[in-house]
Amino acid sequence: AEQSRTRSAYADAIRYAREALALIPSLPDAAERDRLELSTLVMLGPLLIGTQGYSAPELKSLLARAHELSQRVGESPQIFAVLFGLWGFHYNGGRLLEGRAAAQRLLTMAERAGSELATAGACSAMGTTLLWMGEFSGAREHLARAIAFYDRDIQRYLPLNESAVVPSRGQMSWTLWITGSPDQARARIDEAVEFATQLRRPFSLAFALTFAISLAHLLSDYEKARSKADALIELARENGFPHWLASGKMSMGRILAAQGDFDGGLALLEEGVEALKANGAELVYSFSLALLAEVYLAMKRREECLATLERALERADQLGHRVHEPELYRLRGEAMLLEPRDAAEAERCFRRAIEISAERGALSFELRAATSLARLVVESGRRDDARAILAPVYARFTEGFETHDLKQANALLQGLGA
After folding, report:
1. In 240-323, where does DSSP find H-type helix?
2. Are 281 and 54 in contact (CB under 8 A)?
3. What angle do CA 402, 408, 410 make, to 5 degrees?
4. Which residue has the higher pLDDT, 143 or 51?
5. Burial zone of 152 (CB within 10 Å; 0-12 exposed, 13-18 middle, 19+ buried)
């Protein structure tokens, strides 16, 4: 199974892993048997997710069994791979509190053992979890630490299945953009795609492409996003990856809408969103609702936009999926402005988006919300207030001045005489 996985022969790897699990009960009852079963379960889980999605029938019982065995095995060297696998199950299933607990246990044990590889993986897991929980400064700190570990000997760490060289850079690219470093974000995602291309592993390349598309969307670079989405859809179809196929369709739908094909884009986006929901991809489904709301807003379908945002905000509160929470409030404000009588509510939404962004260090989201609020304030004749809202936020940027959001903010400030 391990050899098949290394060759990206995922169907063969699943078959051999299942055969191994069927044989394990015939072995003598001992700690070694538990460790062998654990390592096989941890290998099988990601393979099932990649080829069948998060709703794979075996996944729930596999996770429960792996958790039971992890308690029995204790702090053996093998427990690092087990805990990383358990973290992945929780994180990808949208159970962020459980994922954070697994990442913390992994980090504590890795540091106690003095394992650089395990510590890097734990930092990547923790940083990734914190990103999606909206704790951006912590996410940036942990992901930077993971990348620094890997960069000490990148050629040794890159090919290892147990290293997160590509994922840590992908998650870091999003974190960097959110915290106000768009140029650095581009550099990190370019590295992730380059490394994934070197590896020639479909899993790694799909992951890198997904984050390259997401960053291009955040930067409003839809030409680049489209080429990457085409590549992701083709890769997913060739390798039978339902989750990434749904993500690719979701992304392509948003791109088509951005390029003016609203009807075709919305249809494809809705297809991808429903597939993600059916697939059990809870975390990405939460993110997809923001994309759907953006398109409804662009089409001036106010009620559908507001209903979609309400669902997304409920999931932020109930599940802790807060990575895009400031943007949800900003979009709600923009939707409110489709009815002039709701301008006061729109202003409250924009101010709430600014408040959340400032609390969490989400400078790029803060700039978007400040730009939206400044535009609204200008329309009511309060030019000095608009300048006071936007200028201090814009002044905190030290890079990315050719990006869409910063150019829009600067144009508004120039019009205000700032």
Report:
1. 242-258, 262-279, 282-298, 302-319
2. yes
3. 80
4. 143
5. exposed
